[in-house]
Each structure stands twice: as structure tokens, then as C-alpha cells.
Automatic annotation (TrEMBL):
Name assigned to this protein: Exonuclease domain-containing protein
Superkingdom of this protein's organism: Eukaryota
Keyword terms of this UniProt record: Exonuclease, Hydrolase, Nuclease
Keyword Hydrolase: yes
UniProt-listed CDD domains: ERI-1_3'hExo_like
GO molecular function: 3'-5'-RNA exonuclease activity; nucleic acid binding
Domain Exonuclease: 35-226
Database matches in SUPFAM superfamilies: Ribonuclease H-like
Pfam families: RNase_T
PANTHER family: 3'-5' EXONUCLEASE ERI1-RELATED, 3'-5' EXORIBONUCLEASE 1-RELATED
Alphabetical list of InterPro entries matching this protein: 3-5_Exoribonuclease, ERI-1_3'hExo-like, Ribonucl_H, RNaseH-like_sf, RNaseH_sf
Length: 253
């Protein structure tokens, strides 16, 4: 009953490629995880893409997705006050929609990491006593590897903060898409368009990007795709190491 043709997808992501194949909806297969935590950081930036001395997280949105129904169950959403460059650039505000008032007075990086850890405990995703893995199997999902492998890793190193163990592995949504659809998507917009999903909200708003990523997850799951961990945190100060797939500096272009 899920076998209807729902849309069309590119056969290849080569520049100028227009050949498409139909998307087969086979129904959701049992997944290896109980939950997916969809994450998309927004960070300080300027027209060159980065802000000296480092890019800092200013929006930390996570949506908890049920891995059986692919419905959104809960969310963690925190704006973050940057340490090094507390004044947002006009470029950053124009790109992300995050105005100065939204970060002023908000928790800083390490306090936000603690708030996220507390939320994971409230959700029974971590053992409340010692923060170890709970009985639930879950993983983070990001669009690209930049959020964790570059941004989080660099900022944590800057603050001599140990990245919690649950950031060691994650699913790169672009790699998942490439496994499910047979070609690598260069952007979130291509994934949405090729899956016939209407873009929700504002591009580069972290929480809106996460909601769009949730729709992509559900649509890929409906093809029968079973998600697997694709990426891990490399050793070293700022390294990025997707297990496979092209490298990219930023995520959702
Ligand atoms: P995204 O998840 O694609 O919305 O972007 C994450 C972060 O990457 C943004 O908050 C910016 O810090 C940076 N970024 C994304 N696109 C650009 C761009 N065109 N120019 C400069 N920085 C960008
Ligand atoms: Mg974003
Ligand atoms: Mg992103």
C-alpha cells in the first residue's frame, strides 16, 4: 500500500544533470534506533563564513524524532550568547534571522551544553544518575559533518571543554540520502525538492532547518531505508572525518 510513486529524484548530482527517477515509497522499515535527535547549529559569521577568533554556536536546536513513526516527540531549543564576539554581525542576523536580543542574556556555551545534557536525562536518553547511556538506542543527526566535527569540536577545544561521548558518532543526513536515493545531494534544498517536500519556515533558522530535516528523515524512511551511523569525531584539535562522502565547510547551502 505504500508502493505509490510520490515524486522524482535525480539519478546523479552532476552539475546540469536533469535525469530523474521515481521515488518508491515502500513503507517504514524497523530501525536500529529508538530515537533520532535532529540537530542544526547556527553560529556567528560574517561574509567570509567565519568570525575571528572562532565561530561560536548561537542557536542550539534539537528535535527528538520517534524512530518508529518518525513523528516529532519533543525538542530542546536554546539561543546561546557568544563569548568572543557577543555582538552579532549584521550579516549573521540577515542570514539566520537571529537578532541581538535573542542571544543577549542567554546561557553561554558550556552552560548550554549542561542544559542539553539535563534535557537528555529528562527524556530518559541518558541515565539520570551518572549520565551514561540509557536503555534507549538513539543517535544525533546533522546535515553534513560540519556542526559536530568542526564547529562543536573547535569551540569545545577553545573552552577546554570535553565533548560528551554522545557526540562521538552521528548520522550525516546527506550520506543517508545518498544511500537511500543513489546520489549525493549538495544541499538541504535539493533533498527537499527531490523528495517533493515543501520547505518550512526560514532557511538558516536552526529550528526551521531541523524541522525540514525531520521531514527529509521521514521521507527517506518511507522508502524503506534503514538509517545507520555514518560519521565519527576524529582525534585532533579541529579535524573532520566523515567515514565517506565529500567534504563541505558549511552544512545547509
Ligand atoms: P546552516 O546550518 O546552513 O544554516 O548554517 C550554519 C552556519 O554556517 C550559519 O549559522 C553560519 O554561521 C554559517 N553559514 C551558512 N551559510 C553561510 C553563508 N552563506 N555565509 C557565511 N556563513 C554561512
Ligand atoms: Mg541551519
Ligand atoms: Mg546546518
Amino acid at each position: 500500500m505504500f508502493n505509490q510513486v510520490r515524486g522524482f529524484a535525480r539519478v546523479s548530482s552532476k552539475v546540469g544533470e536533469t535525469v530523474r527517477r521515481s521515488i518508491q515509497k515502500k513503507g517504514i522499515s524497523p530501525q536500529k534506533f529508538h530515537n533520532f535527535l535532529i540537530l542544526d547549529f547556527e553560529a556567528t559569521c560574517d561574509a567570509n563564513g567565519s568570525t575571528y577568533p572562532l565561530q561560536e554556536i548561537i542557536e542550539f536546536p534539537v528535535v527528538k524524532l520517534n524512530a518508529e513513526t518518525f513523528n516529532m516527540e519533543d525538542r530542546f531549543h536554546q539561543y546561546v550568547c557568544p563569548h568572543e564576539r557577543p555582538q552579532l554581525s549584521a550579516f549573521c542576523t540577515n542570514l539566520t534571522g537571529i537578532i541581538q536580543d535573542m542571544v543577549d542574556g542567554q546561557p553561554k556555551f558550556t552552560d548550554t551544553m549542561d542544559l542539553f545534557d539535563n534535557w537528555l536525562k529528562e527524556q530518559n536518553l541518558l541515565c539520570p544518575d551518572d549520565g551514561s547511556k540509557s536503555h534507549l538506542n538513539w543517535t544525533l543527526v546533522t546535515c553534513g559533518d560540519w556542526d559536530i566535527a568542526t564547529l562543536l569540536k573547535r569551540q569545545a577545544a577553545h573552552h577546554s571543554y570535553s565533548v560528551p561521548w554522545y557526540f562521538n558518532n552521528w548520522i550525516n543526513l546527506k550520506i543517508a540520502f545518498s544511500e537511500a536515493m543513489g546520489y549525493y545531494p549538495n544541499s538541504m534544498k535539493i533533498m527537499l525538492s527531490d523528495l517533493n517536500i515543501t520547505h518550512q519556515g526560514r532557511h538558516h533558522s536552526g529550528i526551521d532547518d531541523v524541522i525540514n530535516m525531520c521531514s527529509i528523515m521521514k521521507s527517506l524512511a518511507e522508502t524503506g531505508y534503514v538509517f545507520r551511523t555514518t560519521s565519527k569525531l576524529a582525534d585532533g584539535p579541529t579535524g573532520s572525518s566523515p567515514l565517506k562522502g565529500p567534504k563541505f565547510g558549511s552544512a545547509l547551502v
